[in-house]
Design goal:
Blueprint: E1 3-4, H1 5-12, E2 15-17, E3 23-24, E4 26-27, E5 37-40, H2 47-50, E6 57-61, E7 73-77, H3 80-96, E8 101-102, E9 107-108, E10 113-114, E11 119-120, E12 125-126, E13 131-132, E14 137-138, E15 143-144, E16 149-150, E17 155-156, E18 161-162, E19 167-168, E20 173-174, E21 179-182, E22 187-189, E23 195-197, E24 203-206, E25 211-212, E26 217-219, E27 225-228, E28 233-234, E29 239-240, E30 245-246, E31 251-252, E32 257-258, E33 263-264, E34 269-270, E35 275-276, E36 281-282, E37 287-288, E38 293-294, E39 303-305, E40 310-311, H4 312-323, H5 325-349
Parallel strand pairs: 4-5, 5-6, 6-7, 8-11, 9-12, 10-13, 11-14, 12-15, 13-16, 14-17, 15-18, 16-19, 17-20, 18-21, 19-24, 20-25, 21-26, 24-27, 25-28, 26-29, 27-30, 28-31, 29-32, 30-33, 31-34, 32-35, 33-36, 34-37, 35-38, 37-39
Antiparallel strand pairs: 1-3, 2-7, 22-23, 39-40
Length: 350
């Protein structure tokens, strides 16, 4: 798709310095851009590339003042990074608008309904009594079980599986290979040492504006719901157990895992490879550093690190000591030798 600079500037409510009639058809990194591409500058360390880039158009922030002559057209905005994010969203929506209709072969049960301007790609499957909102995009090889409810402007990428009875709110995106509503890990130990499966009959509820990364799994509740609240952003390769609840606008980086019945508050930030034990409560505004292992509940507004999780500043001190353990060990050995030598000399003096 091609966009003229003037069109982009109107969308961003921005000023153009240079050729308003030039057009671009792709977005590139500033250091790798070629003619016909758009790029942006938001970090000072990339400023040198601005004077050598081959990009046709560069988005910059108002406070930036070039020190050298430029050979490119500028779009001047309040915040270059936010402007780029808005522009990419605009581009993506424009692209998605081109996908409308039902491709064959695909299957949608006669009891299911689909709103206006939707796209059901080839090899997708829609079960019984499914309600699909307006402008929903369903990519190839998506499976939607019975009684699922999809809101407006939902995007389900290739290979997504949504089990029976799950609810997906408006403007949610679920990326390739993710599974929503699979069975929770529930098994009852038996007297003979075997395990009997506890049937999982609940569902998953995704509220509005949730985004789920690729190959993530969210288990259904045992009898009720696993709930992902409004605005949550979940990365690739994440496991969320049965009956968990994740609060509004919380974000989780890759390879994080929540054991069953964990309750996470609002506006939390989980770095990569965080693990949280089951039946714990994480308060609002909590930040968990990479590879943190949480074994006890955490109050609101705390920043923690390490396994088991401890307060961030204390964890930094612990790691500092840990790095110096070989030297500390040698110091102890040397002190022990000195003490033995002193004792020996004292005995000789007596």
């Amino acid at each position: 798709m091609r966009f003229k600079v003037d069109e982009i500037a109107r969308f961003l409510n921005a000023e153009v310095i240079g050729n308003k009639d030039i057009a671009v058809d792709r977005v590139s990194k500033i250091e790798e851009a070629e003619p016909g591409s758009l790029t942006f500058l938001s970090v000072d360390k990339y400023e040198n590339y601005l004077y050598t880039t081959k990009a046709s158009v560069v988005i910059i922030s108002k406070e930036f003042l070039p020190e050298k002559q430029l050979n490119t057209t500028l779009i001047v905005v309040d915040d270059a990074y936010q402007a780029l994010a808005a522009l990419l969203e605009y581009y993506n929506h424009a692209k998605e608008k081109l996908r409308i209709g039902v491709e064959q072969p695909s299957y949608i049960h006669e009891t299911s309904t689909m709103g206006s301007d939707c796209w059901l790609a080839a090899f997708a499957y829609v079960g019984r009594n499914v309600k699909i909102g307006n402008r929903v995009k369903i990519y190839p090889h998506v499976y939607i079980g019975d009684n699922v409810n999809l809101g407006d402007d939902v995007v389900l990428y290739s290979g997504v599986k949504i089990y029976d009875d799950c609810v997906v709110g408006n403007r949610c995106a679920i990326h390739a290979g993710s599974v929503i509503g699979s069975d929770g890990f529930g098994f009852a130990p038996q007297s003979d040492g075997a395990y009997k499966k506890i049937q999982q009959i609940g569902n998953v509820i995704l509220e509005d504006d949730v985004e789920i990364g690729a190959n993530t799994t969210i288990d259904c509740g045992t009898m009720d719901s696993t709930i992902i609240r409004k605005g949550v952003k979940i990365d690739n390769l994440i496991q969320i157990g049965h009956n968990c609840e994740v609060g509004e606008n919380t974000v989780m980086a890759g390879q994080t895992g929540l054991a069953g019945t964990t309750k996470v508050g609002r506006n939390c930030r989980f770095a990569g490879q965080v693990g949280v034990a089951g039946h714990l409560v994480i308060g609002d505004n909590v930040q968990l550093g990479a590879q943190t292992g949480v074994t006890k509940s955490i109050g609101s507004n705390e920043t923690v690190l390490a396994t088991p999780a401890i307060e961030y500043k204390r964890a930094v001190k612990v790691y500092s000591i840990y790095r110096n353990l070989p030297e500390l060990r040698q110091n102890v050995i040397d002190l022990q030798k000195e003490v033995r030598e002193i004792k020996k000399n004292l005995k000789q003096d007596i």
